[in-house]
Amino acid sequence: MSNLVEIRDLHFAYGSRPILQNLRMDFPRGKLIAVMGGSGCGKTTVLRLIGGQIRAQQGTVKVAGKVVGDLDTEELYGLRRKMGMLFQFGALFTDLSVFDNVAFPLREHTDLPEEIIRDLVLMKLHAVGLRNAHKLKPSEISGGMARRVALARAIALDPELIMYDEPFAGLDPISMGVTANLIRNLNDTLGSTSILVSHDVHETFAIADYVYFMSSGKIVAEGTPAEMRASEDPYVKQFVNAAPDGPVPFHYPGKSLAEDLGLGSPA
Ligand SMILES: Nc1ncnc2c1ncn2[C@@H]1O[C@H](COP(=O)(O)OP(=O)(O)OP(=O)(O)O)[C@@H](O)[C@H]1O
User: Could you tell me which residue ranges the ABC transporter domain spans (predicted)?
Assistant: First the structure.
């Protein structure tokens, strides 16, 4: 099976601060691939490299066979049209109705007549169960519904690749489950490829085909959700079991408590 996105030998630094090291990742067409790991390990940076918002200092990111870092502005713009992105707390335009929020990318990126835009928007809203809410403003709907509208907007242009950055953040458990199912169903019905950045193990394992675990800018484990559940890797175990201490220490590194309290030999 061919990969829609391929990352090879990737190194990335913000200034002199290394963020990603020696990454190799495959995102096969049609699959839903999760990228998991603690806060600040570099997950969002991976999405930004795929979207071409930033460029790697070393290594390659290929999307649909093209090296993203080599594209000029116009080519990048063309590539981005094939990508749908749902960012953390995917903010809606508060002054626009639900309908106009979803219509926005269609009006911005296509010359389609309004009657066609109307049908497309209603179909996308139907897919997320909110066709009948199309006249409402974001202030009149719940947080879970707003996330679904953002999802409808992200898929408005039938993207080949959909990237989700923490789509479950701030949602109640029911809305989380609804959003997770939608992400899986949309991937399958649109025939797209999805990248899901999340630290929510339960929802992510329920829908992902394959999982990459990152820590400090490196891939530390990868496999299917079942393989990850059975993994003996201490980092994966700590993450999957949400253990407060393990390879990721609870205490910020430094002096021991005994030293700080002047109690003699360091522990
Ligand atoms: N524009 C920037 N300039 C400098 N450092 C940055 C910039 N953006 C992110 N970083 C740093 O890069 C590291 C990786 O950030 P990134 O957002 O990719 O992490 P993440 O795994 O997505 O974290 P989270 O789950 O908290 O969103 C972090 O330490 C962050 O502080």
Answer: 5-241
Q: How many angstroms separate the alpha carbon of residue 140 from the centre of ligand 1?
A: 33
Q: Are residues 14 and 142 in the same domain?
A: no
Please give the distance, rounded to the nearest whole angstrom, from the Cα atom of residue 12 to the centre of ligand 1. Answer: 11
Return d(Cα 81, Cα 157) in angstroms, integer. Answer: 7
The pTM of the full predicted model, rounded to 2 decimals, is 0.87
The tens digit of pLDDT for each residue in 79-133 reads 988 998 887 666 899 999 999 999 999 999 899 999 999 999 999 999 888 999 9
Phi, psi (deg, nearest 5) at residue 109: -110, -5
Give the Cβ contact number of residue 256 at 10 Å.
12
β-bridge mates for residue 156, sequence order:
none
CA of 14 to the centre of ligand 1 (A): 9
Q: Are 26 and 93 within one domain?
A: no
pLDDT of residue 244: 65
Sign of CA dihedral 244, 245, 247, 251: positive
* Atom from ligand 1 closest to the CA of residue 47: 18
Are 93 and 44 in a shared domain? no
